[in-house]
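FW: tagging you since you asked about this chain on Friday. Here's the raw sequence from the shared folder, copied in full. Didn't touch anything.
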Amino acid sequence: MTDADSILSTIELEPPGKAKFCVIWLHGLGADGHDFEAIVPQLAVTPLNIRFIFPHAPIRAVTINACMEMRAWYDIDPQSPLSGTSDISVSVAQISHLIEGQMEQGLSSEQIILAGFSQGGVIALELALAYERKLAGIMALSTYIHDLESLNERLGLANTETPIFMAHGRMDPMIPIARAAAARSALEALNYPVEWHEYPMGHQVCASEIRDISDWLNRTLTGR
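HL: got it, structure written out here
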């Protein structure tokens, strides 16, 4: 992948003062970076001076949606569950480039949280669990771990103690909660510090989840 290929367009929301932390938040299939932009004002984290970055996934044909082109971090082919693996590797490299950009601006990796919803959560987990530098935290919303059976082969050591926030809807018709729970169980078996939340909702984010995210961000970034 060339340098040009690694650059994603993004939406960046700056805090009132100098940024002390950064949250890179990845959207789900068919959405774009604007998808979670409206949540920021609802988060009770203003004193933390967080920069929020919402990247736009590339546009690609998605097999499960009749090969329609849309923003997607990877292809999904129900007949071939591992078909998106190469796309995931490319997306991981692109988000890694964003993290490096923040470090070039003066933040350390330990001031950066990687977050994602659905497909975006898959990328967040894939990147963070193998990343060579410690991150501040990982937020995995309504998502799962790709190729869970070979997870141990892809793990790094830098983020074994990094806080992980996982949340899922009990009535999610897109990604059954059992799939997310299997990911949680695998991470807990490896002694990752997972904070699990489930809500009476579908494939979405609800008000109580936003409150829990606010609380987790405050605790994670202040060490309380």
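FW: The chain has a mean pLDDT of 95.
HL: agreed, and Residues 3-222 form a domain with the Rossmann fold fold (CATH 3.40.50.1820).
FW: great, closing this out.
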